[in-house]
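Lecture 7 notes: from sequence to structure.
We start with the chain below.
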Amino acid sequence: MSLIRAACAGMLFLAACASTNKSAVPEPRATAPRVEGVEYGFHPQDPVRVGWGDRGMMAFLELLRGPQGQRIAWRRVGPCCGTGAPTELEVFEVTYDGLAAPVSLYLDPNTAGAVHAPNGFNLQGLASRSQAGQEETPRVIEL
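Predicted structure tokens for the same chain:
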């Protein structure tokens, strides 16, 4: 009888160890060092690291606004500063109403990092998001 208890305890222990999903815990992002004298996003040495490929670049450009919330207009200039390696950057010509001349922004579609607005721009919706209030009683769906 004690052999069965030991076997059951061993199975429970193995099941508990196997059920932890270590891949669900995100790894901390490595932040790239800032380059002195280079403005974030305006130079290939310090690009906006959006990650997620084309989808990440399009999401960033959808959120990007002028200083008073103006929608931007952008044009993809093309790849920059690489030889086809995964670290190749994309250059976008960006303008908004009130900007004297279009500016070039450098985006890194393959490397994720902390994203913020370059000087003279804002990101719509990031600062204004409020946490949704939690319900007092959990919603239960009965099957």
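Points to note: Strands lie at 48-49, 64-65, 72-80, 89-96, 103-108, 122-123. The two ends are 39 Å apart (CA to CA).
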